[in-house]
Amino acid sequence: MKNNHFTAPLEIIGINPFVFIPEKVLNEIFEAAKKNKSPIPVKGMINGKEFKQNLMKYLGEWRLYINLTMLKNSSKRIGEVVEIYVEFDDSDRTVQIHPHLDKAIRENPVTLQNFENLIPSRKLELIRYINNLKTEAGIQRNIEKIIRHLKGETDFFGKEIK
Questions:
Q1: What confidence tens digit (pLDDT) does each residue in 86-123 have?
Q2: In Å, what is the CA distance from 3 to each residue of 6, 7, 19, 105, 157?
Q3: Using CA atoms, how far apart are residues 79 and 86, in angstroms rounded to an integer?
């Protein structure tokens, strides 16, 4: 990609910082991705720091949302101009489900069906939640909480549903 370096002012919509992507850059990413529907996985650099993110179309405009880890150690803030390099990312971004969570979900047809019926972002949230835990006790305790939630016994925070 030859046109994938640009500068843009950091803007905000709601609580989400973002930059607009120049049309030339967008067109190259669409061509590399072989699609122009969001989300489109991208990678690059912002102010010299590497990132992986998705390009998203919102309110008719393509945006690169800038999260806090992308701006870490940066003096740049809303309104300031950031330096960006961005390209299509064709790497595998599959997040593997923890084997204990997978086994627990599959042991009961109700939990399996309810898990399968979750929207993809909610499934990913549960998988990442367990994957980020450090101790076996914490993993097991939280898997049990997720299973009770998937059975409809509790909300996600463990409060009983009446």
A1: 999 999 888 899 999 999 999 999 999 999 999 888 89
A2: 8, 11, 16, 46, 47
A3: 20
